[in-house]
Amino acid sequence: MLFISLLVYSGCLSAADYRIERVKENVYRFSAGHYHSVFMVTQSGVFVTDPINPKAAAYLKQQIKQRFNQPIRYMAYSHNHIDHTLGGEQLADAEVEILAHEYAAEDLEWTQTPTVLPTQTFADGMTVKLGDSSVQLNYHGPNNGRGSVSMRFMPANVLYVVDWIVIGRMPYKDLPGYDIHGMIHSTQEILRQPAFDVFVGGHAEMGTRHDVQRYLNYLQDLYLAVVEGMLDGKSLAELQAEIKLDDYRDLAMYEEWLPLNIKGVHDTLLAMSYFDRR
Which candidate in 114, 211, 264, 265 could, as Cys together with 207 as Cys, close a disulfide (CB 3.0–4.6 Å)? Predict the structure, then answer.
């Protein structure tokens, strides 16, 4: 997200732009502008997720010490993208286990991302126990970036997913770095799992299972509308002019980003499915 990323990287955010709020029981959401991460506090220490950026991470570490007086034991990256992974060195010291999916870890290393690298990786999933609580990390296949995972915090039953599920807002612009097929498959898998109580995303709003189902409905309706239009021989300009998806007009950025969402699916069908070579 270019504008937001430049704002965060340039250090323009102040303490007034940071916010910590309880989601449920011992699980909290940390917000830095339009970015959100999650952390869980136990008597055995704290489990934190995406650092977001160095200044945000330094602020969060100071607040955890001040408010809870518990050491950070684990930090988990949701995926590889730098607008969520920078600042890891602010949260993690030698006593902190740094977790990531193996694809995210590989990408952080190969691209020389200026953040601390994971100390422990996993392929399909792993469960971390901390006191009487736990975090279940699961990989659902490609969806956004590399190695993007879901994290379920128990017993609060809070689900945290970054970027590939967004509640109350349209998917970002022309879906840069997204796999539309993977987004649909991964979200379907989330909905097949045991119900969660609260959903927290890396952007936009918190919500419920119903909200995630509606997000999936949007992705499927968008995909079907673009495919059907392309099968009818319509150009991208025609698709953008004709596809409206009025049931989702209440979503933030609907007017601005629907034409770009259409382009994202259209371009994916050309690049991945060779739709124009039929």
Answer: 211
